[in-house]
Fold Glycosyltransferase family 39 protein.
Amino acid sequence: MRQAAQKGRAFFSSRMKCRIRSMLNLPAEVVVAATPDHMTDLPRASASPLVPADRYRSYARKALVLIGLLSLFRLLLAFGLELGNDEAYYWMYSQHLKSNYFDHPPMVALLIRLSTFNGILQGAGWLRLGAVAGGAAAAWLLFRAVSELHSPRAGLYTSVLYLSSFYAGLTAGVYIMPDSPQMIFWTAALWMLVRIDADERNWRNWLLFGLCAGLAILSKVHAGFLWIGLGAYILLHRRQWLRLPQLYAAAAITAVLLTPIVVWNIQNDFITYRFHSRRVTVDHFDLRFSYMLKEAIGQLVFNNPVNVALIIGALWRWKRLPAETKGVLSLFCWIALPHAAFLLAVSLFRDTTLPHWSGPAYVTLLPLAAVMLAGASRRRFLPRAVLAAAGLYLSVLTGWWLTVHFYPGTYGRRDPATLGTGDISLDLYGWELAGKAFGAQYRAAVDAGAVPAGTPVVASYWWGAHVEYYFCRPSGIAFQALGPIPDVREYHWRNRGLPVPQRAFCILASDEAYGLPKGFRQTNAQYRIEVSRGGKPAHAFTVYLLTR
């Protein structure tokens, strides 16, 4: 009887301790027992339940098919839309490879070099090929990560939700942006974190995380939130990891990869960090709720409203999520939520944030939504919510492609001087056609002796990269951007050593806000190139001849 009573008290005490620790969100006590010698070489059990190999292969095939179909759709968009301002600017990066650029690290330039076969193939589709392939790779990496975290079914849902995000499936997955390579390495880093949680002493997983985090930061500095979130998680939930040499080895790998960025900034007075800090530093405390509302709506739209609703639902039902997944999902929350909250906080004071900056945060939270959906009873191949997200993505982007190509005229301003202003679709339409017209006029002027051969084209803003790609590159015409560093950005370094032109052309689009470069005595408008869409005027380009 006495032994039974002691066992009962011990059992009750153990249950009460577990209950209290659960309520306070404290780590559970671990009772270490002696391990027989014949069992010391057994591998650790995975945090997620074992899945039959044939079931995993079935879901993997389904995921690959859906990733392939959505990637084909994105590939058609990539080849069917002209480059935007930002993309033309990053093309300029790829023409002059460096260890770092004024406003971004070098990975996007390397990806363009790779997808264009070292610049041999030109055209919007070839420049974007790396973004499309990278989007497919990132979706597959998420499938692998969430399959190990919970189940292949949840992994399938995550990959579809990822490609249904307008951030992942357009900004990073069609357009060639620094986000394009970033998301390959970001999702790979998330996969490694899942593996680290299952086996915290595995050297390979830690080293690969350090490598992927470093390469993600070499794509875009926002990826520093991977380490910020991991650091917060370790301090609050896994302080025992501070004793792991693997953690410091991973941090060392990331630090070594960032050396080229740091060295370049030391040589250039840390201009990259000063530029970006001006965009997010709060220098006054006048609240601007309209700015914050704009940022919140932007985050909602860019990350697909269906995806955002699913993420909010999963956070609301946190207690219902499987206990074995909460460790990793908590880590994902520490990476994502401070990222999104920081942007909202900055937007409360400044109108300098861009909605796609929050994209990696919402991608990191997609596994929560997928795990929640996978825990429901299965009645169909894909849940209605996943189909709704994919359907919204496909319908909106199809409508966007149709608008760019077939909208009659412009939905922006219609007066000749500012024709097309406010119509963002014109950033992707009419530039190639206008560039061909300018090339013909330029050759005719040179042949007639009106201007000397080699007369360059100039611009006063970095958006002039658009002009360089479509107006200058096809005809071999030199281009310079002239102005202060904040206006011309990376062109300041490219212009070094070039003589200031005495005569130059300048091409101004009617729907863009920058003006003529300063320092020229005469500015004569030569002619106007008008671009029509659907039989109506859409936007126009005025060609000036400038003389000092």
